[in-house]
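Hi both,

Apologies for the delay on this - the queue was longer than expected. I finally got the zinc ion-bound model through. Below you'll find the protein sequence and the ligand SMILES exactly as submitted, and right after that the structure tokens for the full complex including the ligand.
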Amino acid sequence: MIGLPKFLAPKPKTNRSFFIELDGKNVEIFPKLNQRAKRLILRQNSMADGFKLTMPPRVSLAQAKRFCHQHASWMSGRLAAQGQLTCFAHGQFIPLRGQQYQLVFLDKLRGITEIHQNQIWVTGGADFAPRRLVNWLKQQAKTDIQIAINKYEPLLDVKHSRLTIRDTKSRWGSCSSSKALSFSWRLVMAPPDVLDYVVAHELAHILEMNHSAKFWQHVSAVCSHRAVSQKWLKLNGGQLHQIRVK
Ligand SMILES: [Zn+2]
């Protein structure tokens, strides 16, 4: 995908990646050769849709697969824990702009979604509140993203053509050759600087449709918190994707 920092890009489904069956579900394993690794290591990948497998030199794919099967119950445990992760339900806490807020679903059908101190009040009851909340979060994301666009466009001397807010699993933002920007609404849950950085990043792609040194110069020139935000996304981005709407 053009216009994506490496850590936001979809994991390449290389010839080497393979699936193993866990609890009736196919789970993808992404082997990665590491010359310095001493042993096989399994880790859940950042998008939590599979597992990374660090391979030391001279380990065959057959050995790697055997290793995965031996650790099937560990992987099942990880996936089960994920199923219990935050979802949009009454009483749950969700992050918004980096702060935790408790969800309060009210039975009133009509009304508005709003913040009351450290709570987010959503009407519509358990049936309609989650959908209403997502729509509200998308609107919040759009507002914050537009503010960042307004800030960075004059600084970079660029103009975008279109803005869309999506729920993309594989990336936080993208910029097409026609200067159309797209962002994940989940960015609004991250600390404000993170969303701000992703916007600067995608706008800089209007100048450079690659991740060359020149591209990073453009980003760094306008966004002083680039490195901190990149690190935050790398460490915590996956968790934002694990929050289930319903
Ligand atoms: Zn990029």
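Main takeaway for now: The pocket of zinc ion is lined by residues 3-5, 201, 205, 211 (CB under 6 Å).

I'll put the files on the shared drive as well.

H.
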